[in-house]
UniProtKB/TrEMBL annotation:
A cellular component annotation (GO) from this entry: membrane
Protein name per UniProt: Mitochondrial carrier protein
One Pfam family hit: Mito_carr
Keyword Membrane: yes
Organism: Flemingia macrophylla
Keyword flag Transmembrane helix: no
Matches recorded under PANTHER family: SOLUTE CARRIER FAMILY 25
Solcar repeat residue numbers: 30-116, 126-227, 234-326
Membrane topology: Multi-pass membrane protein
Length: 341
């Protein structure tokens, strides 16, 4: 425990100068609070770093007029042309407000679930399989607690307003929703239209996707670290690499579920012209998107997601590990041995 509390944040290479944290800075702070702080900070930093790519991805997934048939660079240019620099970060306020409690809860509950499993199910061992179980449970918990904010973020990012009075190049086909101005406006509007259930529209595919994704992400991150020599396991480059690969693997397997969720969130299931085109559930959404829009639509935007998820997952995992080290959060296996002692 003492060696962990005296841990340091390492540099970009293992033998680089380290930054020592103040030993007394966080003495007396409960462990779960430290985990919440570390997770929230990691989530906000990683989400803001890739916000422009996240905006483009949502516009692609929801087949917004003028965006679904052009590339990443052209999409970013079109947003800059019609909405200015701030357009690249439209919806990011809602995203950060959502991601801070989401990431804080995700990482904290992951640590708590992992600790519970280690203490109560010793027959499962201490390998990456524990991270798979704890990560999945943590993902479901954090989604249920923060989903309305994710819905607001998607609706804000989906709106394309022409702040420069220029609606050329296909922008006339966009539906403007000026009434939903800000997070509060979106949530109020959604609640008036669909009540409490409306705030959780699309939550089904989200949960279906997050359970395997969150579990696989933590599993792959810890699994990859076991293949790295111990003397290099604290290096930032190692953490960035393992985090990027873990996010890439998990996202590839669950991306179609994310497409269904986005289309349900922006109201395609409510605004379908024919009753038979509405999505009844996640599987029905997958089937109808493949039938009506083509199976390629289930992976539309996956290329930008690869560009986005690599830095996002890498920054998230690395920042969380560094913050835990700085705050003096001990590894779970070490925590269990200390508790047993």
């Amino acid at each position: 425990m003492e060696s962990s509390r005296g841990s340091t944040i390492v540099g970009f290479v293992d033998n680089a100068p380290s930054i020592q944290r103040n030993e007394s800075s966080f003495d007396g702070v409960p462990l779960y609070v430290k985990e919440l702080i570390a997770g929230g900070f990691a989530g906000a930093l990683s989400k803001t770093a890739v916000a422009p790519l996240e905006r483009v991805k949502i516009l692609w997934q929801t087949r917004t007029a003028g965006f679904h048939s052009i590339g990443v660079y052209q999409s970013l240019n079109k947003i800059l042309k019609h909405e200015g620099f701030q357009g690249l970060y439209k919806g990011n306020g809602a995203s950060v407000i959502r991601i801070v409690p989401y990431a804080a809860l995700h990482f904290m509950t992951y640590e708590r679930y992992k600790s519970w499993i280690l203490n109560n199910c010793p027959e499962l061992g201490t390998g990456p399989f524990i991270d798979l179980l704890a990560g999945s449970a943590a993902g479901g918990t954090s989604v249920l607690c923060t989903y309305p904010l994710d819905l607001a973020r998607t609706k804000l990012a989906y709106q394309v307003a022409d702040t420069r009075e220029n609606i050329k190049d296909g922008m006339k086909g966009v539906q403007y929703q000026s009434a939903n101005n800000g997070i509060k406006g979106v949530l109020t509007s959604v609640y008036k239209e669909g009540g409490f259930r409306g705030l959780y529209r699309g939550a089904g595919p989200t949960l279906t996707g997050i359970l395997p994704y969150a579990g696989l992400k933590f599993y792959m991150y810890e699994k990859l670290k076991t293949h790295v020599p111990e003397e290099h396991q604290n290096g930032i480059l190692m953490r960035l690499s393992c985090g990027a690969l873990a996010g890439l693997f998990g996202q590839t397997l669950t991306y179609p579920l994310d497409v269904v969720k986005r289309q349900m969130q922006v109201g395609r299931l409510q605004n379908a012209a024919r009753e038979e085109d509405r999505y009844k559930n996640t599987l029905d959404g997958l089937r109808k998107i493949a039938r009506n829009q083509g199976w390629r639509q289930l992976f539309h935007g996956v290329s930008i997601n690869y560009i986005r998820i690599v830095p996002s997952a890498a920054i998230g995992f690395t920042t969380y590990d560094m913050m835990k080290s700085w705050l003096g959060v001990p590894p779970q296996e070490k925590s269990r041995s200390v508790s047993a002692a």
